Known about the structure:
The protein is an all-alpha fold. It has a domain at 86-273: MetI-like fold. It has 14 helices and two strands; from the N terminus they run H-H-H-H-H-H-H-E-E-H-H-H-H-H-H-H. Strands 1-2 form a two-stranded antiparallel sheet. Strand 1 and strand 2 (175-177) form a beta hairpin.
Amino acid sequence: MIAFLLKRATNAAFVMLAVALLAFVIFRFFGDPVEMMVNEQATQADRAELRERLGLNDGLITQYGRFVTHAVQGDFGISYRNQQDVMVLIKERFPATFELVLVATVISLVVGIPLGVITAVYRNSRLANALQLGSIVGVSLPSFVVGILLILGFSVTLGWLPGFGRGETVDIGWWSTGFLTPSGRAALILPSISLSTFQVTLVMRLVRAEMLETLRADYIKFARARGVPTARVQWRHALRNCLMPVITLTGMQIGNLIAFALVTETVFQWPGMGMLFIQAVTFVDIPVMAAYLMIVSFIFVALNTLVDITYAWVDPRLRDDTARTGGGNG
């Protein structure tokens, strides 16, 4: 197990170093930081002094090492546009994105799992066919189209829910939450549904495929032969054995939701990390772009590593294969 953990940690470190190199290239070669930070009245001497203070006259390897060291410490510099510490901006925006992703994940599980079971158990019914057709539509529609349709229907036409903004929030230390206010909870509904649409169809299709395979297993036939109620066989015995792949998929998709929430946040003007990144791209705010890339990549790598470790803990054959591979390479 120790060899497995070391291999996964080493892989994660190499991936993050590669991402750091990409972020450094963006930070160093896309635009001149000095020209973006100084005002028009700055003299050439002022520019030279700032360039020396930023370490831009050092070698590229030295600059890259300094960039990685600062990134590990959470130091990504000052935003060109806001003239604030980048991590301060990230801390302000991260709670909004986290709550949006959290609610979208809950919706995907609460809706996707039952629909997957229904389409598997009643696979030849009209309801199952309709749900399958709906899943194809859900996969095909881009998230921004879903968001616009939701705003048009429930905000503009019916006026039931807010179509933009986060509503009122409550500060708990440095964390701001909309869960504790009615307007904050109402503002979460439409963007969460928009963000979770693809995830719902993904979970539903996975559960359906796993259920169809599980229902043909011998222990399910044995349970039915013993007279166990059909609903208990389907929703307890069969479903329980289908949840591990769903949990794995959900853990890996959380990173995708955080990364691609920027589209949903732009449509609903949601003040999260995605919106911050879009603004950074618009104003060529390189430090914010580099920080966003590093943080989202770290979340991806951390979640995938955690899933691998969980699988290895549940199924010892995986870590045994890793040990044999490592021994063969040696």
